[in-house]
Amino acid sequence: MKTENPTGRGREGSKAAVRRMLDSQAQLINLRPAWKAIGLDRSTFLHPGPPLEWERAGSLLRGSLMGAALLEGLADSPPEAEHLLSRSAGPAASGQPLLLEPGHRHGVVVPGAGIVTASTWLMELQDPTTGRRAWSPLHEGHGAALRHGAFAPETIHRLRWMHGVLAPMVQMAIWTVVENIGPIDVQEMLRETTFMGDEGHLNTRAGTLLLMRELVPAMLATASSAGFTSSDVADAANFICADEDFFCCLSLPVCKLAADAARGQPGSGLVVAMSSNGTDFGIQTAGTGHEWFVAPAPVPEPVERSENDRRQVAPVIGDAAIAETVGLGHCALAVSPRARSLLRVDLDTLASQIKRFEQICVSDNPALPLPALARSASPTGFDARDIRRTGLLPLLGSWSLGLVPGSGPLGVGVVEAPLETFETAVALLAPYDDAEDAPGSSGSTSSGSTSSGAGTAEGFDDLDDLPPTQEG
User: Fold this and answer.
1) Pairing, β 184-185 against β 27-33
2) Cα(33)–Cα(43) distance, rounded to whole angstroms?
3) Residues 70-84: tens digit of each pLDDT
4) Which CATH architecture has domain 8-21+263-459?
5) Whole-prediction pTM value?
6) What is the pLDDT of residues 308-327, one digit of tens each?
7) Can you say whether the dihedral through the CA atoms of 34, 205, 310, 423 is positive or negative?
């Protein structure tokens, strides 16, 4: 394995990839069920993180999968759902009746232990310059949520209300705005929220308020014609207002579009995905196609919690670390007093962490200044080679979820992305540092041993045939 500085070719490849990342745009164009948006069938469930099967799934993901089976009407009770999944849920191409696939494979990112099924309504974002799209489900709010592993009757009832009332109302509002004004520029909205105290991951309060400003007038204007009452509008508006993290359903796919724009750069070690399914934590790089490099999922250390709470914390889970790959989240923590307060990180500590990130990031993002640290730009674009060379690891802020399905957050904590994932990625890149057939180049394929940290390759062929913008 090579441990010296990246070659000129590898470094230039990462610089080219991060330029595409920073140039990415994102517009909100639609909201529709997954069976329409990405052609998902009822026998396929999308989960966060790298590929896995039921037998290796942790307690939270198992709870979410059971809730998904109940929501889709594939089972009538939790025991029946568990029996169905235990005997039939396998990885893609396994030939099993129920398939478990990573959402990343379909351009979908989900928070926590969230599961996307055919009936899940997805926010649909598009990069107008490339046509590429990304999706994320509507945020569920607080309480017993599917993304926390809950499968209680109130969880299913709320999801069905979201599917039957909230989602169609928001859909009509989006269509009205798109038709009368044009697509909503979520990329610009996300930049604006960073000046209002959001860092795109743990804190999205400002984004939620800006989204309400865009959608509520249109919801009021279209509700009656769509068969909804003023009470329905009030319920929908109250639900979104009460969920200060609702904007996550837009911030995460914005980051997904930016990260995917960097993919396919030969020789580049730029990290374009960091995610966990609660069992395995995985990364992907711009120069290794859609190969997953995995290690055991780390457990967040909750801030100011008892020793008993620490023992009850589940391993990190969800796709939300996509924010850190594009310079948001922990890289942009200086813009968010609330996120810093949640993590108990002062500016002096953060200044030293930013110096750490400078050594493992390829570039800066001038659109994201950090005035609290007297910096004109935030460090952006982790490079696996730099991480392997220095031993410095990305820091990820995360909600610390209880091990018991549905118990919800015990607080927030910080985890380090596992070094093993970057080492195995660099091992695959190293032989190609000076070659023309680097992984990720046209016609190239790569594979690795799961035991050494390399998972399965995930393609994006299904995104080539883009669905229509509106329902036809």
Assistant:
1) antiparallel
2) 15
3) 999 999 999 999 999
4) Alpha-Beta Complex (3.90)
5) 0.89
6) 555 688 999 999 999 999 99
7) positive
